Amino acid sequence: AIWFPIMIKGSVSNMPTDFNIVGKSVTVGDKSYTWNSHLLQDGQGSVRLVVCNQWATDDEKADNNTITEAIPVKQGDKITFNFYVTADAPAPAKTATPVAIAPSTSYNAYLGFQTDDWLFRDPWNNSDTGLKSKDYDYLKQVAWNHDGKTNPVNVTSITDAKMEKNGVKYNLSIKGLDVKKVSSASTKFNMLFITTDIPLSMKGVQVKNAVLKIDGKKIKE
């Protein structure tokens, strides 16, 4: 986990200039760990004092992952964060340099979903060959995770899209999937979405006249 013990109220996008908060120690159960992190600003602009584990970003690790060993936590453990306030300002927030992305002549799109009983088609793999999974064939199957095992489910057809022109209608579909037959406990979608590999840095991207159909019935437009 990544713990965020303190969020400064009203501090979004505003690093303090006249005080800093510095970590001293973290105690879990009967063991204490030295913790000398300071306030930082995350990618969303929130100002926090944090404890990061090995899944933190490189910048977070360099600045704040001062506890390098894994901290075991058992049920019932009390977790205590000790910190103090200083009169100096925190170090300026680091801003990552955006990675340049060359424009492409085409972009891909696929239809994904996930039900509350873990029938799904949702991971994305940005490889040259497109969608990949070691558990099932993305081109003709979806998956159902049951009893801790991923089970491939054959469908009649799956249509993804290669978008090469503006102003063109593209269709994404999964046909021949009987949700109730495969997963009788499924009652709703946790997620139902379109994923593309259009970079977030691209300006002026719009989606127009979208229509959602389920079993041939128009649900939303």
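The record above closes out task 2.4. Task 2.5 opens with a second protein, given below.
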Amino acid sequence: MKVENVRFWPAPAKLNLMLRIIGQRSDGYHLLQTVFQFLDIGDWLDFQPRDDALIRRVSTIPGVPESDDLVVKAAKVLQQATATSAGVDIHLEKQLPMGGGLGGGSSDAATTLVALNLIWNTQLSRSELARLGLALGADVPVFILGKAAWAEGVGEELIALELLEPWYLVLIPPCHVSTAAVFSDQELTRNSPRMTIADYFAGSALNDCLPVVSRRYPDVALALEWLGQFAVPKLTGTGVCVFAAFDDESKARRLLGELPVGLQGFVARGLNRSPLIARAHEEHMWSSG
């Protein structure tokens, strides 16, 4: 999943290491508590600036029309917010599974905002970009801020965390989980007691969506069962991906080679600092803010 061309910008995956639903707003959005950590694997984007204000995605993504793609929407949001006359051709190398709970679309949008802010010289701060990103998706701000984080609200109230950075074996069950179906399920827990960061570090790391997803999607349940033979299995977000942490990379890779037929996966390192932000600093995009 590495791209050698230095023009390409990283759009890293994330994991939700826990997910608690503590309420629901009047507009229907669920109030969450979750922990985000990045992975050293993800999508890649290349941006070729234009001087005619046209924004185009020049790569084909099966099942995602250009008009619906978050990278195009992100570019247009930044263009409109800054009144720039610049345009761009965007090439997206899609590596992460769509609908996997790994934040691929949100990460792609965040990378678009961060990279074009530099390329177009629109000079927004990181916090200003995060506010723009929130309109595109609740997970976008954490990718822009670029640090592993405790999140509340709908996922946008962030407190940076220093976490262990283990190796993760991530499994991709052969199905598609509907986030809308999970959040509308009558059996979903929506009133978990509010917890603290100290509670999380003491070991409280459940995902309130896991019982519903396991019941609705047998392939996810089977992946959790298989992985549970070797480690503590978890669900990221509403899935579809499940994962477990390992201190030893070699053990994770050995298990990857022993996956049951029909189950795919990969091994990646957990990161507390996003590769996107490291790249932005290399480009002297910002020093703070």
